Structure formats: C-alpha cells, structure tokens
Amino acid sequence: PPSPVESPPPSPVESPPPPTSQSPPPPTTASGASQYILPGSATYTGDGTAYSAAIASDGGIAFACSYRYLNSYFTQYFAAMNSAQWNSGAACGQCVVARCVDPACVTQNFDVLVQIVDECPECAEGALDFSYPAYQAVTGVPPNRLTVSWEYADCSSFISGGIQYNPKEGSNGFWQAFYLDNYSYTLASVSWGGVTLTRSQFQFFQRSGPMPTGPFQLTITSTTGQTITATVNDFNTPQDLGVNFS
C-alpha cells in the first residue's frame, strides 16, 4: 500500500516575549496573602468548586478573558468568576483572596491569592470556580463543592513587564481588533485616535476604520484612574508595549 502522506506541521503562533523578571513566589501563609486584600472590600461568600488543571503561559486563550499571556504564578492560581460579578468581562485580571469556611474543609481559613481569568456562567453570585492547584490550597481536599469566602485584592506586585498586545485574527482593512494582557490593574477603557474602543464579550477591543500603515498610539485607562499611552509599532505584530500601570 502507498505510504501515508504526512501533513506539514502548523506554523507557530507568534506572541510577544514574556516579561523577563520573575513574579514573587506564592504566599505561603494566611497572613502573607491577606496583605493583598483591598482596603474596604466587602466579603463575599459562595460555593467553591474546581474545573481546570494548571495551564501553560498561553493557556488562558481557552478561557473567557482570552489571555495570551499569564505569568508563572497565575498559570496555577486562577479562578472563574460567577456571571453576576463577572460584569461582562470587567473582572478580567482582577485578583481575589479566598479561603474555605466550610466545616468539611481540611484547610480552614487559609488565604490564597488568585486571579480571575474566566467566567463561570452556572455559578451563583458569590461563587468561584478554581484551578485545581488553587482549590487544593484553599480547601485541602480534591475538587468538591464547599463554601468559601473572599475579598477583592491588589495583585499588581505580581505583574512584571509591560502590557502585552496581540492582534486578533480576522482584522482587515476595514475592521481591526486586538487583545491586551498582563496589565497590573483592571482595564476601564482603551482609546485609539481619541475614540474609545468597544470591548467585546470575548475581551478584545475593536474599531471600524482603515488599517494603520505605521505606528499608532493607544490610551489605556485602569479602573484605579491611571492613564498611560502606549505605541504599537505595527498592528499585525504582537508586542510588549513596554508600559504598565504603577
């Protein structure tokens, strides 16, 4: 019989180089994680479940935040937010400090810092769906449904390097879209040429207009009120923008 014809391997997907500096190690004590809780944050309570193994640095593409890059800590310690508090994706990149308050937990009241990278549509308000490593750290048991409590947290010190820019496939001479990752505070808005861009439910920013032929600037504003300007050298080339919120 004729030999099977082998298909050529797919072309590698280009992505920006990861930041070079290392993220801080994960908190090893409850007091170590509690320092990241935002002052004045309310405490929320709900079901704690688990749904995913740890992922590669580009594994967030499969989740609702569509992240093309996560640092080493957040590839392990992440969670999906319930739809009510997901807020159409505004929660992407937000961190929370969670602990188990259920009598069935082996680990009780041990604070663990995680980043929101996904949505849990079936979760009730207050609930979090964790990665397996995060769930083990929070509860001390295999995946289950146990009560957790949590607060919003500031994890900006865990983010190193610049905001990462990635063009969206399908962009053309009339419509362009792109993703932003690795921002140290959650995004309030992104503007291009003085026009605020529309944020898709799939977490890319989009506009209608001609494709830029050279460098262009983005104005990026965080939910903390900081505004930075970043230059994209070429629309179709992934890039570390070299700036981030302080």
TrEMBL record:
Residues 46-155 form the Expansin-like EG45 domain. It comes from the Eukaryota. It holds the Pfam family DPBB_1. InterPro entries: Expansin/allergen_DPBB_dom, Expansin_CBD_sf, Expansin_CellWall, RlpA-like_DPBB, RlpA-like_sf. Keywords: Signal. Residues 1-34 are annotated as: Disordered. Residues 1-28 have a biased composition (Pro residues). The keyword Oxidoreductase does not apply. The keyword Cell division does not apply. This is Expansin-like EG45 domain-containing protein. It comes from Auxenochlorella protothecoides (Green microalga).
